[in-house]
Amino acid sequence: MAWFRKDKKPLRAEDRREVPTDVFDKCKGCGEILYRERLAQNLNVCPDCGYHLRVGAHAYVSILLDGGSFHEADADLRAADPLDFTDLKPYPERVAAAEAKGKTEAAVSGTGQLDGIEVSLAVMDFDFIGGSMGSVVGEKIARAGRVALEREIPFLIVSASGGARMQEGIYSLMQMAKTSTVLARLHDSGIPFISILTHPTTGGVTASYAMLGDANLAEPGALIGFAGPRVIEETIKQELPAGFQRSEFLREHGMVDRVVDRRDLKETVAALLRHQYAGWSD
């Protein structure tokens, strides 16, 4: 019987096959190992469970706008250090470290065509200091809103943020008022503003422009809220319901108008804009 028995030998380190990290990704939703090229073709949505992996600002520009139509604005704006802030690391060093990854700020803005409709667009980038809202982010969004106001074109913001940038203190908090004022002017002029909330959208961003859309859309499973769930539980001394602060929970309670799969995002936004201003599509 020994002829038919195969003794198991422990796997040695030299026997293990190294999987290139630039070829595969692991889904955080179901744990499936996904071929990165196939995942990119599916807009970084897991084909097995539908989990939405995080993507950068320029990826959303490509997803929403027609190819070759985007014209970036205010790319030269850079963060200052008005408070001479030093925590574990001086603020300028944090900015430099983020820029070394190929980013310039936590927001990209400009104009382009969405299914033939001219729009002004601002997209936040979580990879730049957690997508935190500093003075540059607020200025870019405010300027993009003013472009929409001057040209009478729709305004879109894609949010992904941990909230206000603590290293800028009150300067960061002032961006909440500045951006909200521009959105109020758009509302008074009848120019649509669509807010798209992705994972995560929290803090002062949620408390200002992210929730002020004429239509608030959210990606599936996105964390959306002001304070984190753990902070809320410790404050109110109660256990939060399942799915609290997730897109689907907020939709059920009237805080989000619709949860939209990333693969349907462009089509959904185009339909909303044409419903509001049918003439813009011609």
Shape: globular
CATH superfamily of the largest domain: 2-enoyl-CoA Hydratase, Chain A, domain 1
CATH topology of the largest domain: 2-enoyl-CoA Hydratase, Chain A, domain 1
If helices are DSSP runs of H or I spanning 4 or more residues, what is the number of helices? 9
Main pleated-sheet profile: 7 strands, mixed
Indicate how many domains the architecture comprises: 2
Reading side by side through the largest sheet, how are the strands ordered? Answer: 3-4-5-6-7-8-9
What are the defining features of this structure?
282 residues, alpha/beta, 2-enoyl-CoA Hydratase, Chain A, domain 1, 2 domains, 7-stranded mixed sheet, two-stranded antiparallel sheet, 9 helices, 32% helix
Q: Could you characterize what this model shows?
A:
The protein is of the alpha/beta class and 282 residues long. It has 2 domains: 12-53, no CATH class; 55-281, Alpha-Beta Complex (2-enoyl-CoA Hydratase, Chain A, domain 1), CATH 3.90.226.10. 32% of the residues lie in helices and 17% in strands. It contains 9 helices and 9 strands. It has helices spanning 36-41, 57-64, 91-99, 135-151, 169-188, 203-206, 229-236, 247-252, 265-276, and strands spanning 24-26, 33-35, 71-73, 107-114, 117-124, 155-161, 193-201, 215-218, 258-259. The protein has a 7-stranded mixed β-sheet with strand order 3-4-5-6-7-8-9, sandwiched between helices. Strands 1-2 form a two-stranded antiparallel sheet. It is globular, with a radius of gyration of 22 Å.
